[in-house]
Amino acid sequence: MNTNNMLLIDPHVHMTSRTTDDYERMRKAGIVAIIEPAFWLGQPRTEAGSFKDYFSSLVGWERFRASQFGIKHYCTIGLNSKEANNEALAEQVMELLPLFLYKEGVVGVGEIGYDDQTKAEDKYFRAQLELSKEVNLPVQIHTPHRDKKAGTIKSMEVCLEHGIAPDMVVVDHNNEETVKDVLDRGFWAAFTIYPNSKMGNERMVEVVKKYGSERIIVNSSADWGISDPLSVPKTASLMLERGIDPEDVRKVCYQNALDSFGKSGQMHESDWLTPANVDQREKFSDNSVLRGGQTPVVGDINTSGELDSNIVR
Ligand SMILES: [Zn+2]
């Protein structure tokens, strides 16, 4: 993997489900900032309190944990489409959202949209679009895996119906079937690079060759399933190898993520361009990422993503 020390952003990755090894590998591969969308945890939550604690960890502990490896962590907060189908719970979650959307590092309402395209999903998708206007944040849309094309088009139509500007909406999990519709309508088109399925690296190279780099964004959506938190650097590397202009690679693997979610006013390049200082002596609510006897690392991340450490003894 060679990206010539290019700075990278992964604007869709569920770090809560990943390990510190992942953080280390991501930073070494050039990832300087990430966005963690609120989503579902693999099994349905039964209490609003579980949502509250999860949202709190996205703006708290996980943000801290990333900082301990020299990565800037941002998140989007929302009620995911799957769990929107539990209406009694959904009502309570809707009341929690405004308490979190104004927090530092929250760059959007997400990931929201359709899963099975049910009535309840539609209701809470629309309610959250209204909320996004109130708080003036971008929207991160999860498009359905089944009946994708229709679901993607419907998601965009509903946004327009609610008077949301296309450049405030990142439509995620695109493929060759949906990309043209999304770009033609002026929305941001994000692509998830799953290992061995859906958008493979090679296919992403072809998409950029065909559609260029305007409003196209690459992410990993790595989570608790089989996924790869290095999807963005690997794709950047392959694009360079296949002769895609480095400026185009920079756009789809860095700049477009910043330009879209930067509209939140919460995400600035200066957040990470000042040398990332790592101090593993720091604690969050009395907890550190270290375990007994481990030596804290303190130092700056150099341009190769390596830690120039002064080990504290
Ligand atoms: Zn996701």
Please explain how this structure is put together.
This protein is an alpha/beta fold and 313 residues long. It has 2 domains: 8-274, TIM Barrel (Alpha-Beta Barrel), CATH 3.20.20.140; 275-313, no CATH class. The protein has 11 helices and 11 strands. It has helices at 20-28, 48-59, 61-67, 87-101, 119-135, 148-161, 179-184, 201-211, 231-241, 246-261, 270-273; strands at 8-10, 31-37, 72-77, 106-113, 139-142, 169-172, 188-192, 216-219, 277-279, 297-301, 307-311. It has an 8-stranded parallel β-sheet with strand order 1-2-3-4-5-6-7-8. It has a 3-stranded antiparallel β-sheet with strand order 9-10-11, with no helix packed on it. The radius of gyration is 19 Å and the shape is globular. Zinc ion is lined by residues 12, 14, 37, 39, 111, 221. Residues 12, 14, 37, 39, 111, 221 line the site of zinc ion.
In short, what is this structure?
The protein is an alpha/beta fold. It has helices at residues 20-28, 48-59, 61-67, 87-101, 119-135, 148-161, 179-184, 201-211, 231-241, 246-261, 270-273; strands at 8-10, 31-37, 72-77, 106-113, 139-142, 169-172, 188-192, 216-219, 277-279, 297-301, 307-311. The radius of gyration is 19 Å and the shape is globular.
